[in-house]
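Troubleshooting: if your tokenizer reports a length mismatch, compare your output against this known-good record of 163 residues.
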Amino acid sequence: MLANVVAQSTQPAGGGFDIFSLLLPLALIFLIFTMFRKQRKMKQEVAEQRTQMVPGTEVMTNFGLFGTIVSLDEDNNKALIEISPGVTATVHSQTLSKVVTPEPAAEEPGIVPDDASSLTHPADADTERPVHQETPEETVERLNRENARERDRNDRERNDKDQ
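Known-good structure output:
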């Protein structure tokens, strides 16, 4: 039986055009082309970043350490980076993976009032109201009240389902 399946799956000796025999080499060529193209782009990006890495530039290493370049030693592939004021670290220059650019400050969204009364009197909105911060004891009391209400509601729902 296995011999019959194998015999049916082979092509006749007369030959014929098979699209898959053409597609496989084309797919392989395409994959190789994209692989080399991506590698070339990565090399260009690394070379561009290397030109930006001069003393005074803020950088990030590939292990997540942020600092400012103090000096670069191209001969020994070493970079001296200042991690915090007065603290420096010597790292291999290939570990400098990213130039950190400061992001522009995002605009803070306007304050949205939580009730309609502040909309009618904009002068009184938040300037005259005292800000009340809960003490830890008040927070515990409030949470206990909320939990008790929740338990009562759940008990009522269970009783309604049982009846």
